[in-house]
Design brief:
Keywords: NAD, Oxidoreductase. With 382 residues, the protein is an alpha/beta fold. 52% of the residues lie in helices and 10% in strands. A 6-stranded parallel β-sheet has the order 1-8-5-4-2-3, with helices on both faces. The chain has a two-stranded antiparallel sheet with strand order 6-7. Helix 4 (73-86) packs across helix 5 and helix 7 runs parallel beside helix 11. The termini are far apart. The chain binds fe (ii) ion.
Length: 382
């Protein structure tokens, strides 16, 4: 069998990297760019740094600051129409996961005559996206190094999306120094879940595995440090890399049933994506240990969890319990603490059944297994 692995786009990395935005845009030949961001990122002054750098490089800018949580379709449409009207030749997304996904959607919409509904439901697009650069301000989604944009269909209450490859990414850990501790925990657990699902998908490869193990190591060492001390640069630096490597890893492999379930939680309960990912990941570990006992054992070793068995079931349970303990240390709330009942969790069954990602794991998930997995999430993390 012939495998495949790849890289997505070049990443400029380091403290103050955002100040090189103008230089990058010049290299890409941009003349007029649209900054895609939200009001919080603007208030923190992050987008202004990019604008100043673009001005120095004599590149004209227009600003779209209307991004909302979970990248709703109507914001992609509004931003895309603005990009068309302003005739920009480049797009720069600066912000968290929703901003980066919205920027990807805008880049596709601006380059095509297509309805927003057709676009996010994967109708063929005639033209490639307007070229775009992504600058994350939260370490979690790794969206700056993936070709996937998750966009919300607000009429059907579904997470769907489109595909677009960034031309370049700028990873500046300094931008994450101001993040509150709970966002640090949730976004960090999103990255962690990307690693576990990438390792246990139907198509991992040596390259995606390598990136996932490294990202897990950085996450378990530095997430508790950043959680306690948000201004610790070394921790932020390592978590920015962990998020980026985890994104590269699942971009080269895939996420699967964990994200199908996390998406159902987002749609039903409107909780942050990272919390949904955290809640489901121990269950994904238990599920996939039967097929990947050596990989789960290695994850346990990286997490310093003692495993005294060769039995895949015991390996899975031991590592999952170790992760639950880790989640408690960074105060990830349980379903109950979030006000979600066991019955409400089970009501996600149909959503998960219809979520294509559920089929992408290395272990097949039957229809009957879905309510069992959902109940286990509630019962095993209180
Ligand atoms: Fe995710």
């Amino acid at each position: 069998m012939i495998g495949r692995y790849g890289q997505l786009c070049t990443v400029a990395y380091g403290a103050g990297a955002i100040n090189s935005t103008g230089e990058t845009a010049k290299e890409l030949g941009f003349k007029k760019v649209m900054i895609v961001t939200d009001k919080q990122v603007e208030a923190l002054g992050h987008s202004q740094k990019a604008i100043d750098s673009l001005k120095k490089a004599n590149i004209e800018t227009v600003i779209f600051n209307g991004v909302e949580m979970d990248a709703p379709d109507y914001t992609v449409e509004a931003g895309g129409n603005m990009a068309k009207k302003e005739q920009v030749d480049g797009i720069i997304g600066i912000g968290g996961g929703s901003v980066l996904d919205t920027a990807k959607g805008i880049a596709c919409f601006a380059a095509n005559e297509i309805s927003i509904s057709d676009m996010i439901h994967h109708a063929p697009m005639k033209n490639p996206p307007v070229r775009f650069v992504l600058i994350p301000t939260t370490p979690g989604t790794g969206s700056e190094s993936t070709f996937v944009a998750v966009i919300t269909d607000t009429k059907k209450h579904e997470k769907v999306g489109c595909f677009a490859v960034p031309s370049f990414s700028i990873l500046d850990p300094e931008l994450t120094l101001s993040l509150p501790k709970e966002i640090t925990a949730y976004t960090g657990m999103d990255a962690f879940s990307h690693c576990i699902e990438s390792l246990t998908s139907m198509q991992p490869n040596p390259h995606s595995d390598l990136l996932a193990y490294d990202a897990i190591e950085r996450s378990v060492k530095w997430l508790p440090v950043a959680y306690k001390d948000p201004n610790n640069y070394e921790a932020r630096d390592n978590l920015a890399l962990a998020s980026n490597f985890a994104g590269k890893s699942f971009n080269d492999s895939t996420v699967h049933v964990g994200h199908a379930i996390a998406h159902s939680f987002g749609a039903h309960f409107h909780i942050p994506h990272g919390i949904g990912c955290a809640l489901v990941t121990p269950v994904v570990i238990e599920l996939t240990a039967s097929k990947f006992p050596e990989k789960i054992k290695k994850v346990g070793k990286i997490m310093d969890i003692e495993i005294n068995s060769e039995d895949p079931v015991v390996i899975g349970k031991t590592v999952a319990d170790g992760l639950r303990k880790f989640m408690k240390s960074i105060e990830v709330p349980s379903c109950k603490e979030l006000g979600i009942t066991r019955e409400e969790i089970l009501n996600c069954t149909d959503y998960v059944r219809n979520e294509p990602l559920r089929n992408f794991g290395g272990v097949a998930v039957t229809d009957e297994m879905i309510p069992e997995l959902l109940a286990k999430i509630y019962d095993t993390y209180q």
